[in-house]
Amino acid sequence: MVSTPKFSAHVEHVELWGVKNELLDHLVDSLPPPSSPLLSRFTSLKLHEIEGLLVLPQGLLPHLTCLESLSIDRCKDFTTLSPAVIQHLTSLQRLELSSCPCLASWKGGYDHGGDEKKNKMTMMPMCALPCLHSLRFFNLPKLLHLPEWLRHSSNLQKLQMNDCVALKGLPEWLTKLAAVKSLEVNSCGDLSTRCRGQTALDWPYIAQIPNIEVDDRVIQKDGCYLGLDQGQGEGNSEDEDDDEEEEEEEESAQDKLANGFARLTCGLFRRCFLC
Questions:
Q1: CA atoms of 64 and 95, how far apart (whole Å)
Q2: Transmembrane region positions (predicted)?
């Protein structure tokens, strides 16, 4: 018997950890209509170790037009995040995908079960995430290339790729994302080599980015090219900034908890709503 979560007017963050995909389906069934004011405060969704999650359920993201942060972590069966799925996330600011060993494709549509015809109908719509400013990929060993929909995210400011060893190169259209201020490429095999300095193959696509770090070396800082020798040993600066940012986010989350922040944790963890 699966207990279906209920939403209150104060729910801002939902985190599912260590549960089966069936529970996520029940969560979708419990969501109020997309027009409901209950969803206007729902800004963060984190999915950790969801067993059997291949793609996101059809009915989930259309409800979450106010979602600002989406994180999918350690979902070993997760295979794709397509434009058809994320096109509804017009308020999304932060997207993080990490430790999903089967994620290799940005194609495919919603999970329509065995209905192949419906899946083909939702293959590749035009997609733009107008508010996206931070995109992070960690430990995605089968990921071959950046998503094509990223070229329309004109407000992207930070792009980070760690331990994505199958990535072979960066797209030329990256030069058109003028808002990007920071690029990190660490432990990405061939891609790291293609970004390592002014003579590297992909440098023409990233030279306009003010801050560039490759394999823990700062190659370019505040628009000033440092090269490999000058940048050696400085590669932890961005990591320190990230740590500070994460600490600030944790402190902010604690403040929200003290002031009426409501968080839902299902499965192995407790569930807590403040109404």
A1: 14
A2: none
Digit-coded pLDDT (tens) for 12-71: 888 889 988 888 888 777 777 776 777 777 899 999 999 999 998 877 888 788 899 999
How many domains does one find in the chain?
A: 2
**Within 13 Å and on the Cβ side, how many CA atoms surround 164?**
26
CB 61 within 8 A of CB 124: no
Is 149 among the domain residues?
no
pLDDT score at 37: 73
The residues near 238 (Cβ < 8 Å, ≥ 6 apart) are 182, 184, 211, 213, 218
50: containing domain: 1-141+253-275
Checking 255-260 for CB contacts under 8 A at 24+ apart, the result is 256/12, 260/10
Give the separation between CA 130 and CA 153, rounded to whole angstroms.
5
Cα separation of 97 and 140, whole Å?
A: 8
Under the banding of pLDDT at 50, 70 and 90, the label for residue 261 is very low
Sheet containing strand 94-98, strands side by side? 224-225, 217-221, 211-214, 182-186, 158-162, 134-138, 94-98, 69-73, 44-48, 11-17, 262-267
**Residues 126, 30 share a domain:** yes
Considering only CA atoms, give the Rg of the chain.
Answer: 19
